[in-house]
Amino acid sequence: MTVVCVPNCAFLSETSRMIAIYRSLEEIGVPALMATHGGTFEFVLRQEGIPYESLEPRVTEEESRQYVDSVVDPRNPILDTDKLEAHVRSEMGFFQQRGARAALTGFTLSAALSARGAGIPLVVTHLGSFVPPALERGMFAFAEYFDGPVSGVLPRAWVDGAAGWLFQRVRWQTPLFNAVADKLRIDPVRSTFDILMGDLTPVTDVPEILGIPEDEMEAWRPSDTRYLRPNARLKYVGAIFARLFGQVPEDVSDFLHTEKPKVFVSLSSSRPEYLGQVVATLADMDVRAVVAATVHERGLGESDNILVKGYLPSHRVMPMCNLAIIHGGQGSVQTAISAGIPLIGFPLQPEQNFNLRQVERHGGGCCLSLRSLKREKLRSAVDRVTRDESYRSAMIRLQAWQAARDGPFEVACAIRSLLRD
Asked: CA–CA distance from 206 to each of 38, 217, 300, 395, 410 (Å)?
């Protein structure tokens, strides 16, 4: 009953999630294979010693950037029609050749078609907590992401509820996917959300933080099957975040040996200008900031209170700091919770906005719009969060709730149960 894990290696978060679940599948004795079209963070699989198959066509650096842009604005096409068809054919062939009983993916969206074409269930982890029950309750985080003159006039609760209703019904990307589905005689997708969800979507959070009881989450069923497959199911599993290779470099440890407020900046799936604005702001403040720049190392400038590194193990560096500045992907948010440190986030897309708003609701940090990514607004937020101990206390409370569940292990167990049904 082989499970094929198909990470989208354009994203560090999706690559690390697949690694964690792959290891848990091995731990409970479920045969698993790792396969990817590649991307910026494919090297992480090699560094972690994970054997994997390379799927054709290979993702270029330009296409990796396209994936990031499609997250920032989901109307942007992830691939052209011919490339998407090639991805789907390649994955279907691999699933059939290897006798796959299920596919597990993190934002390899072509799997929405290839799993259907191969006749196997699809499990996805990339939605995190951004799932229909939350949207149906008006928890959709709108104001900071769509910050503008009109959104400031309308009542926030009304805007959030309307946006949540609408987001489940939009059909961005569906013409592209259904052109390929029609050609390959695969059941069509019904909406953007139908592309994003699987037959089983693990909710990688805990009820105490998200605020939706476990029995309600798992009893949810699609209310309108014009937009979602009728067999779509949800299951709470707990947090999944990166615990990857590497120790804290000596120069980072020495740099953070200070009484000044210590800030960890990780804006990996970002645009260089956003990271540059954050670095420029912190360079003028009485703090020490370590920047995990990944692919954005060049052109950030130099300062005595800024240390720029390429790759850093966030789960080891964050506990040494007083504040994390992130975009709000669930992996980064959950790493900050695990470290018990407050955060400030600038979301690039709705799911990140949603994650940050949950932490803000519990008092553990601030969710700011990209429009507010200006020196004085960021400066005041950093001062406030590093000086007010209530933010740290709130994150310690979230830390205890999150630590009560083992997300990768619970996903692996849920997949095993799915295969036995």
From this structure: 31, 11, 37, 14, 12
- Chain mean pLDDT for the chain: 91
| The amino acid at 393 | S
> How far is Cα 279 from Cα 292, in angstroms, rounded to an integer?
11
Tokens 């069509």 belong to which residue?
Answer: 188
Distance between CA atoms of residues 197 and 41, nearest Å: 23
Beta-strand ranges (E) seen in 319-414 are: 323-326, 343-345, 365-367
Angle at 85 between CA 82 and CA 90, to 5 degrees: 125
3-state DSSP assignment of residue 122:
strand
Residue 245 · residue 47 · CB < 8 Å: yes
Structure tokens at 399: 């830390």
Q: In the beta sheet, which residues pair with residue 326? A: 266, 345
- Which ranges constitute the DSSP H helices of 327-374? 330-339, 350-361
CB 350 within 8 A of CB 330: no
**What is the maximum alpha-carbon separation in the chain?**
63
For residue 154, the one-letter residue type is L
CA distance 37 to 84: 12
Q: Is 400 helix (H, G, I), strand (E, B) or coil?
A: helix
User: Distance between CA atoms of 118 and 92, rounded to whole angstroms?
Assistant: 6
Helix (H, G, I), strand (E, B) or coil at 288: strand
Determine the Cα–Cα distance for residues 68 and 45; give it in Å rounded to an integer: 19
Q: How far apart (Å, rounded) are the C-alpha atoms in residues 236 and 234? A: 7
- The pair phi, psi for residue 377, each rounded to 5°, is -70, -45
Contact 197, 114 (CB under 8 A): no
Can you give 303-324 as a three-state secondary structure string? ECCEEEECCCCHHHHHHHCCEE
- Helix or strand run (H / E) with residue 103: strand 100-106
Q: What is the pLDDT of residues 304-320, one digit of tens each?
A: 999 999 889 999 999 99
Lowest mean pLDDT among 181-190, 307-316, 406-415: 307-316
Specify the pTM: 0.90
Per-residue pLDDT of 104-161, as tens digits, reads 999 999 999 999 999 999 999 999 999 999 988 888 765 555 555 555 666 777 777 7
User: What amino acid occupies position 345?
Assistant: G
Q: Does residue 301 register a pLDDT over 70? A: no
> Tokens 């009484």 sit at which residue?
259
DSSP for residue 168: T
The pLDDT value recorded for residue 362 is 98
